[in-house]
Fold this sequence. Notes:
Number of domains: 2
Number of strands: 22
Distance between the termini: 90 Å
Helix content: 10-25%
Amino acid sequence: xxxxxxxxxxxxxxFTSLLIIQTNLVYxxxxxxxxxxxxxxxxxQQQILSDPIEIKRTLLEPETRINKKNIYLESFxxxxxxxxxxxxxxxxxxxxxxxxxxxxxxxxxxxxxKEDQQKSWFKIxxxxxxxxxxxxxxxxxINIDDLDWQIKVTVLIKxxxxxxxxxxTFEFEITEPFxxxxxxTADLYKIDxxxxxxxxxxxxxxxxxxxxxGETLNSDHLFYRLEEVNRxxxxxxxxxxxxxxxxxxxxxxxxxxxxxxxxRAIRFGVDLGRESSTVQPAGLYNGKIVFTLRxxxxxx
Length: 300
């Protein structure tokens, strides 16, 4: 009789253990991502987006029902080794549950999966303004509710400099050549450089200026100076010694340090003086100045 009672106890214990295991299986659920690392490279002033990161619910027992909930993505920081952060407004998120692309902020949690969804996706990106930040690597971590692992984000902002001119032609007319030996143009020729660093320079190569009769305006008679774009200058107060001239065929016109000090425009001058009694023949002289952007870092 005693042996029989022990057998019943064993049966009850085994049955209870099975119930506990079964209960755990019913309520177990995993949230997984298609990948756990996002890499973005920005080498020009343009918006970029990552490939979609898929988020998926995985049930250990698909036929069971559990209490599901909305899944949110936390705002996150991206910073470099010096602790400098990419501003929140330069980081964007795209998701089918959002009506449009959103920019991060420090207070918002972003819905990436609704409670009735089995799977969803999101993209992380940068606005074009981020390209003008200090070059280098920025890293951060994305946390998503119930996700089985964190997602690492690495952003590489490369050095870049791009040169554009506001116009391909620049014209000026000397109507009273005998009023002064040095003629100064009233208009400025603006130069636009889009860059996130200053180790660059713009070189100018002057080709010959000739008129229809074949007369030449020598390069050493053409001068230039750098000026701030929005600063008013009385050109009547300018002197020839405040200009540089094209004695050499190729010269450094402007560099990144000058440009960052807002010296972003060129004013031209023409020296009409001659050592002999000859004068420069009148006429329309056409020529060309070829501008070339040269980077000073061979690793770019």
